[in-house]
Amino acid sequence: MPASIYDQHLDRNAANHCALTPLVYLQRAAEVYPDRLSVVQGLGPDAQRWTWRQTYERSRRLASALQGLGIVKNDTVAVMLPNTPAMVEAHFGIPMAGAVLNALNTRLDAGTIAFMLDHSESKVLVLDPEYAAVIRKALALRKADTPLTLIETRDVPPGMTADRLGGIDYEDFLAGGDPQFEWPLPADEWDAISLNYTSGTTGDPKGVVYHHRGAALNAVANILEWDMPKHAVYLWTLPMFHANGWCFPWTLAARAAVNVCLRKVDPQTIFDLMREHRVSHFCGAPLVQSMLANAPAEMKTGLPTGIKAMVAGAPPPAAVIEAMEKIGFELTHVYGLTETYGPVTACAKQEAWNALGADERARLNARQGVRNHLQHAVQVLDPDTLQPVPADGETIGEVMMRGNLAMKGYLKNAKSTADAFAGGWFHSGDLAVQFPDGYIKIRDRSKDIIISGGENISSIEVEDVLYLHPAVLAAAVVARPDPKWGESPCAFVELKPGAQASEAEIIGHCRKHLAGFKVPRSVVFGELPKTSTGKLQKFELRKRLASQAAIDV
């Protein structure tokens, strides 16, 4: 067959094609808005500030200095940093050196950190003094004998004495780099830009590899889903180590926005930062949103109007969404996984919803929604046939995705990668229904479905009801072995400060809203275990039940 006229003399070349990468967003911000604020840390007269020119120069210095250490393309550079200016710089300077950023979860134990450093073959570790003790233990537990260069920041939190491991001082390291370093574009947009480890609750953590193309596209998708304006002011309540902060370090550079740094989630500090820096946007897990919604009223006075909040993680209860609306936050519900660069769906709001009551509007907004602008497809499929389930809001299938916002795969784990992409779809492991309007709603993780007397019970459905109780701050429902039904729901409940409720009261509340077989048969009160991003750790609750079962025997 003769070549098409559109295939003749129309080749790619340096003038009409280059690799997509989010690194150019920083370059443009520094060129177009060099003197605008890029990063701020702290409150009052002691707050530290940097401009986009300075952030670009510091990132180039970091890249230059890393290459001076011998770092080359596809070397892994790990960081153990909170949401500080150095973490913002790491998202640009490390890939500018051609290296791959491995942002470590700052709440992990030493053994897990040691595994990640070895598995990723990290050659450099940039760390904050706050984590020196756990890193010291992790280094002693490493099995690999490859050298690891330590670089230590000076950013010591108030009330803490710096604990140094004898590494290179971060500021001295940057001073030795070139602020005009000519960093190259990636040769291929499929080149790795970052590595993010999953939680590893059922085995060793898996290393999720991102490419430049996906990072660049999801950074833009964040802008589109939020209609984020230029020079927005974004508060870092979401850890940047979590799926690279859902790609928001790169998003904020694309908008020449302001990074308001935050070391630790604390309601008083959050509200103070919102007031002083006139915050316009922030992200967080449902538990973080609930914490803010339930804070004392005096904390929330004088806030900027129309703060936009993005919530993901476990599906947010409708009660949390309604509470956020009452304090003036405009909540956008998104959904995704580490394997999808963070959010790949958003609950796109329809104008007709404005005429609905608060309860119904919150119910609709609690859905995971529809695919974002730059993901090719997100569907609820039968996991066996890979065919769409009926869009009836009842039939459960598995959420699957395909397109530009799926990871490259799992590092050094061919089988898990093949399983995740079986049939040409990324298998999320999340069970959901699809409604006639195309919106999806998560019913549960496949491992979290409770099967009682042959009936499937969605733990999320029960949790939504628990959150409607005025005394409940946080709730999680897991399966408890039941001699008659096989499994029955057990509710773990954390009450709001000063609130009281009995087991009988909680169970009675659930009976008003749920079919009898879905009602928890037992309630356990106390603080719930959470990840650093605010997700409830159900595997820990299952361990508690297993331990109690052993005692009962």
Write the layout of secondary structure elements.
Blueprint: H1 23-32, E1 37-41, E2 48-51, H2 52-68, E3 76-80, H3 85-96, E4 100-103, H4 110-119, E5 122-127, H5 132-141, E6 149-152, E7 168-169, H6 170-175, E8 192-197, E9 207-211, H7 212-226, E10 233-235, H8 243-246, H9 248-254, E11 258-261, H10 267-277, E12 281-284, H11 286-293, E13 308-311, H12 318-326, E14 330-337, E15 342-346, H13 358-365, E16 370-371, E17 377-381, E18 397-402, E19 409-410, H14 414-420, E20 426-434, E21 440-445, E22 450-452, E23 455-457, H15 459-467, E24 472-482, E25 486-495, H16 503-511, E26 522-525, H17 538-552
Parallel strand pairs: 1-11, 3-4, 3-5, 4-8, 5-6, 6-7, 10-11, 10-12, 12-13, 13-14, 25-26
Antiparallel strand pairs: 1-2, 8-9, 9-19, 14-15, 15-16, 17-18, 18-20, 20-21, 22-23, 24-25
Helix pairs in contact: 1-2, 1-9, 2-3, 4-5, 7-9, 11-12, 12-13
